[in-house]
Amino acid sequence: MRLAKLVDGLDYARYWVAEHHNLPSVAATNPAVLVAMLATATSRLRVGAGGVMLPNHAPLAVAEQFALLEAAYPGRIDLGIGRAPGADPVTSTVLRGGRDDRAVDQFPDHLDDVIALLGPAGVSVRLPDRDYVLKSTPHALTRPRVFVLGSSVQSARVAAAKGLPYVFGHHLFGEQTDEALACYRSEFVPSELTTEPTAFLTVNTVVAETHQEATALILPYLHLHARTATGHPPGPVELVEEAQQATLTPEQHRIAQAELGRAVVGTPAEALAQLRALAEQFGVDELMLNPVASARQGTDAAASPGRETTLKLVAGTLPHKVNEE
């Protein structure tokens, strides 16, 4: 909430929150509730889900939630939709009430349902004696803007086929960035919602007054990522001082260094050069920053000074509008 209020007064275009479950390091479990809180606390920003993990939800429930948000905050709501569970297999099963209903495989069809339910015609269900029409209520005069989230060629292909904007999770997996974006652009089919390919790229970002400080502030995130990638249960994010004293296995160190190579880390001038290089390399329409600076010992638990500094310094350096995730 504090970060959203901060960036509402800076030159940022949008602020998104994610959906993750049963993770000690992440507090974002219910995007719709968080979006409502953020929209109330801000006045200018577009706010949205980055995103709703559709296999965990009924399409009608998602459409109704975001139709209500759009009615309350017209022209300010984004709905990013993903096919990942946002949780480990056990947690995912519990979220779905124990059902194994192939929800991930049904993602393209359920995505169609959400889009149709947000539209004026709704969805028609054929009954034996008649058609039954479902619509999301309340019916806003405008729709939330819908995005497909992903980090693979498969998700890029879905976004292209549906004619929707595509947000590639480069901050999570950068191995397929080029291939996925090329697939999205080459296979894009114009739609009522989006007439030409529109691609965003997410990037982990830490900016400080010195390169040394920025490198220190990202260290706990790198450790968390490396340990999770090697099968360790995710725990709370370390403080900077704890991470500096911790040790990694050779494999974890390799993973951490690869993750560092994908991130934007450094001084304001260094960050500007890296962000421009990313935008040029991948030809994206927007960059979305995921500020991952950790705290030092003695920091107020409700504060995120490293992340606040990152967002202030980026906003003061870039000549364009930037986004925060």
From TrEMBL:
One of its GO terms (molecular function) is oxidoreductase activity, acting on paired donors, with incorporation or reduction of molecular oxygen. GO terms for cellular component: cytosol. The keyword Oxidoreductase applies. InterPro entries: Bact_Lucif_Oxidored (IPR050766), CmoO-like (IPR019949), Luciferase-like_dom (IPR011251), Luciferase-like_sf (IPR036661). SUPFAM superfamilies: Bacterial luciferase-like. PANTHER family: LUCIFERASE-LIKE MONOOXYGENASE. This is Monooxygenase. It comes from Mycolicibacter sinensis (strain JDM601).
